[in-house]
Amino acid sequence: MKKTNLLLATLAATLFASTAFADVAVKLGVLNDRSGVYSDITGEGSVIAAQMAVEDFKPAEKGINVEIVSADHQNKPDIASNIARQWYDQDGVDVILDVPTSSTALAVSDITREKNKIFMNSGGGTSDLTGKACSPNTVHWTYDTWQLANGTGSAVVKDGGKKWFFVVADYAFGQALERDTSEVVKAAGGEVVGSVRHPFPGTDFSSFLLQAQSSGAEVIGFANAGGDTINSIKQAAEFGIVQGGQKLAGLLVFINDIKSLGLETAQGLYLSETFYWDLNDQTREWSARFEEKAGKKPNMVQAGVYASVLHYLKAVDELDSKDATQVMAKMKEMPTDDPLFGKGEIRKDGRKIHPAYLFRVKSPDQSKGEWDLYELVSTIPAEEAFRPLDQGGCSLVQ
Amino acid sequence: MIDLLGIPPQALFGQLLLGLINGAFYAILSLGLAIIFGLLNIINFAHGAQYMLGALVSWMLLNYLGINYWWALLLVPIIVGFTGVVLERVLISRLYHLDHLYGLLLTFGLALIIQGFARNYYGISGLPYTIPSQLAGGQNLGFMFLPNYRGWVVVASLAVCITTWFVIEKTKLGAYLRAATENPSLVGAFGINVPRMITLTYGFGVALAAFAGVLAAPIYSVNPNMGADLIIVVFAVVVIGGMGSILGSILTGFGLGLVEGLTRVFYPEGSAVVIFVIMALVLLVKPAGLFGRTA
């Protein structure tokens, strides 16, 4: 008995030793909402996306050992901070991925900087991550509030929607989105005729919609997210707002929200995203594989997790090292190229640059399948899609 | 046109009507809670989850079996009410001799489990459920556009509330029920099966929650948390009305819907808080609630 144990121990030791010497071992941590309001948008789907990136990169052939761990941050900054510290200090995690909810994203960004690790955000929205609160250790991959405001706001004004009324979730995210979009609307020659702030989260939006309906606005912009947006749009359809000639603009809408609303209710809605599964052959191929594993089509956040893992592994492979400072420099130096977002770059401030798209939700007649939901209205080129480098107030830019 | 505090009267009428509609949901949910508390002395924290089940089961009936809204209105309360009966027999009936706190913890735990299952299988984003074609569209009332469906919600819930109140307060069956809560052993001595009556009462309370869930499915997002978001407000309604008071819960349900509607016009940011402010004030002045009896 004793002998076998000894033998096993020696064997294990040799195995560990050989992996440690021959390869670079990296540990990726997917930190997101796995049970709450954003668990469909991020959750297990993001973990699957990260695993797919690892499979597609074939790191074993390149001498890289990749391990993926995941945890639920419940959209709470304190819980997110605790997990991030434990991952960095005790569990040997090198990169934290995803992190939806702006407040948790900002907290994780601070800790990552303090520990000199790498944070690649996909799920969070606030443009402060690459603005006032930017960090040399943070990459913001998929979207941000500036891009949403710019994408949807200016496009809708160009399309003839000059007078706006905002229905705003009464907390930091909603107010920031309202502020950013108002600026964009005014700059494009539009006008804001009013706004109403509703408690977060809300259930019944009919009062606010009635105020929007009688405001004389041409466009009603929803500066809220998730269940609030779904309920707002569902009830707007009920009150005949679109039939009455007013347009709806969702400022942060994911494909999962549209699926939940159904086309009958959501048709005609304008929205801006940086990824859609049906953009080209590459996105379709990848999304089909994702659907096989996850049982649903991917959204832009999950696509962003895939693409950021791929880019990170490329940098590690180039360097043959996982030193955070070197990898960050390499990731910013190498142009990005992946099947989902195409060619792009990571700017000095950590902002990942790629095109954004303005979509209109199809009518039930136009849709040919369960997930055939969007019609592409226009493409916003990469250089215009995100806030110009010199306007964010990021200290890394000077 | 005379404006009232800067709001044209037309807009005000519209908002009052909307308040009444929301009040209909509060009334029907708080009624179920009040019945269960009044007759069983159980604080049913699973009420929100049972309301969600009502909406979810209607969606299932439509998508798996092709059963439409009208049948759902009848079948869903029966199905979900039956799960309530099972729950009462298997678990809740064991707690009657214990402190309220045990019932509260048990039902709260059940709510978490039900919501967890729903989230696991159907995700959090919610499921689409369209308004039945007979009730689509709306009426232009001059001062506002009233969707037909909202009108139906008020009518249906008023009818259910009044019938329930009538049965409990004015019929022989109701008298048995009320007597059984006062003194179960004495009522049992008259040959009435008290435990069965209590089981069915719980089932009925749950069926009311499910009925509200069916009413809500076409206008609110059908998702696992829809009940959790609402239930806290409904508890406040019950406390204001007086725990266990049938009439109190109906009247406060509609009344607070109106108050909330007005708050949404004058100070929208405060509309989530106003009910709790009223609750605090009422508890200061009348600790047993507006319609409650002090023990």
Automatic annotation (TrEMBL), chain A:
Record's signal peptide: 1-22
Keywords recorded for this protein, A-Z: Amino-acid transport, Signal, Transport
InterPro entries per UniProt: BCAA_transport (IPR051010), Leu-bd (IPR028081), Peripla_BP_I (IPR028082)
Taxonomy, superkingdom: Bacteria
Signal found in the keyword field: yes
GO biological process, one term: amino acid transport
Domain Leucine-binding protein: 26-362
Pfam families attached to this UniProt entry: Peripla_BP_6
Family statement drawn from the similarity comment of this UniProt entry: Belongs to the leucine-binding protein family.
Name used for this protein in its record: ABC transporter substrate-binding protein
From TrEMBL, chain B:
Keywords annotated in UniProt: Amino-acid transport, Cell membrane, Membrane, Transmembrane, Transmembrane helix, Transport
InterPro entries per UniProt: ABC_transp_permease, BCAA_transport_permease
GO cellular component annotations of the record: plasma membrane
Subcellular location: Cell membrane
Membrane spanning residue stretches: 12-35, 68-87, 99-118, 149-168, 200-220, 232-259, 266-285
GO molecular function: transmembrane transporter activity
BP-aspect Gene Ontology terms: amino acid transport
Primary location group: membrane
Membrane-topology annotation of the record: Multi-pass membrane protein
Family membership noted in the UniProt record: Belongs to the binding-protein-dependent transport system permease family. LivHM subfamily.
Name the UniProt record assigns to this protein: Branched-chain amino acid ABC transporter permease
Annotated source species: Tianweitania sediminis
